[in-house]
């Protein structure tokens, strides 16, 4: 896993959802040259919300397995995309949805969530 290919590696997992991902890219007017924080903020996070709305548990599991791999990375660039872009956006949204997302998270991603929750000072509200 490398920082520069994070989005492409993610998108490869969802070849059957390519139309949805391309629409999100088009609507946000972004591309990978804008950087991984932009791609994950404007494409990946909204995509994960779509999967939740569609109750697509198979693909939610796939997405959060990928996030778990990001959480295990030794590259701070990669873990920062996860914590500061993905998890912060999820934690800043609807609490019920955030708790639904947590059911798909692996052990290390959940640990990262604790850090994000402390940073956002949401811990009491999420319990």
Structural notes for this entry:
There is one protein chain. This protein has one domain. Helices cover 74% and strands 0% of the residues. It contains eight helices and no strands. It is globular and about 35 Å long.
Summarize the structure.
With 127 residues, the chain is an all-alpha fold.
How many β-strand runs? 0
The outline comes out as globular
Which ranges are low-confidence, i.e. pLDDT below 50, for 5 or more consecutive residues?
Answer: 123-127
Major β-sheet, in short? Answer: none
Q: Could you spell the SSE succession in H and E letters?
A: HHHHHHHH
User: How many domains make up the coordinates?
Assistant: 1
| Beta-strand percentage range | under 5%
Features:
127 residues; mainly alpha
Secondary structure topology:
Layout: H1 6-12, H2 18-28, H3 36-53, H4 57-71, H5 76-92, H6 95-102, H7 107-120, H8 123-126
Helix pairs in contact: 2-3, 3-5, 4-7, 5-7
């Amino acid at each position: 896993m490398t920082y520069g290919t994070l989005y492409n590696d993610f998108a490869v997992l969802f070849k059957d959802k390519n139309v949805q991902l391309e629409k999100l890219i088009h609507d946000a007017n972004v591309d990978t040259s804008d950087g991984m924080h932009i791609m994950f903020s404007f494409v990946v996070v909204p995509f994960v919300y779509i999967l939740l709305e569609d109750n697509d548990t198979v693909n939610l599991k796939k997405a959060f397995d990928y996030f778990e791999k990001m959480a295990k990375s030794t590259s701070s660039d990669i873990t920062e995309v996860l914590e500061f872009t993905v998890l912060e956006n999820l934690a800043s949204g609807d609490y019920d949805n955030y708790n639904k997302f947590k059911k798909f998270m692996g052990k290390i991603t959940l640990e990262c969530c604790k850090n994000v929750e402390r940073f956002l000072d949401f811990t009491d509200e999420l319990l």
